[in-house]
Amino acid sequence: MSEIKVNLKQNSYSIFVEKGIINQIPRMLKDKLNGQKWIIISQYNLMEIFGFKLLSEFNNEGFDVDYITTVNSENAKSMNEYNRIITQLFELGCDRSTVIIALGGGVIGDLAGFIASSFMRGVKYYQVPTTLLSMVDSSIGGKTGINIAEGKNLIGAIYQPSGVFIDPRLLDSLPKDEVVSGLGEVIKYGAIRDRKFLDKLSEWLDNMDEFPFEKAIEISVKIKAEIVSIDEKELGLRKILNFGHTIGHGLESTIGYGKIRHGEAVAMGILCSSWISKKFGILSNQEYDYLVGIINKLNLPKVSQINHETLLSFINKDKKKQNGIIQFILLNRLGEPIINKNVSENLILNSLKVLK
Ligand SMILES: NC(=O)c1ccc[n+]([C@@H]2O[C@H](COP(=O)([O-])OP(=O)(O)OC[C@H]3O[C@@H](n4cnc5c(N)ncnc54)[C@H](O)[C@@H]3O)[C@@H](O)[C@H]2O)c1
Ligand SMILES: [Zn+2]
To answer: What is the DSSP letter of 135?
Structure first.
């Protein structure tokens, strides 16, 4: 079992990665048992695949445990679901000492994490991510939140979990497109931080049947944990994790949630940002071609006509969130990002041609 630490003084926690670890969670948490109520927040399909088994193992170890399910879509991250679940927590007799287990992908992690951050001014929670994207990204770093009509993730908190349990075996039931989406974020880590990891990914992606998920997750988690440990609140270094995300978020909003997955949009954003990096004369042609070659191994869905005005309006919304300046992440070379504040709208629109 590998244990990776996120070092944040009193908010420090461990991320455990091991095949089959889901069966060990109740035993590993037994020393935290203190007569309190434990609540698994998940989706019904996930309860059927592995949640009910986890629930019964918690029971066997003497935990007072219950579960709450929410809808199986991005709609789970809504005020309505938030209110409904808070009411249910009270009905189940939860209080300040309650511990929440978020069992699911990024949607569940973001919602359950936000509930944990605000229920009774904050209760402990653990992340048990079940998608590749949530294993390598959303379960780590404490960003939690829900969506409102004005936009995605606009209500939320940075609230760290007390631990993260990653079981790569849970990916066996994950649909292939969801795996590809997670790989978009995995490639991002190589591109911004670890050239050697990119070389490995390039090789591994040639044989998806043998893809060593556990290794790839471990390396990705180490990179994210290191960055979050240095800059929890995204005041500096953590911004590099947004590589591919300015255009990626724009594409996600323009094409429509549910029509393109987050990690797919990020992979496309990486293609565009790398092209812009090449245009600025910083990323070499050779390294650009190499990165494009790796992303092409994902066989991303083709995007049809993208409405330029809509895309720019979403990118400008993102800009407002960043005090009016887009801090665009570009690549000096593979593994070495820089922040650039002079990427014009024209250049962004021109970069879209690489998606055709
Ligand atoms: N907090 C962060 O730092 C952060 C970072 C990136 C993304 N996000 C958020 O994450 C969300 C996307 O998360 P996601 O990509 O994990 O998608 P998701 O949570 O919607 O899961 C995708 C689908 O896969 C199903 N599923 C999950 N695990 C499964 C498994 N093991 N077997 C079979 N089916 C399974 C789910 O029920 C769902 O239908 C977005 O809301 C995004 O905003 C948050
Ligand atoms: Zn992302």
So the answer is: I
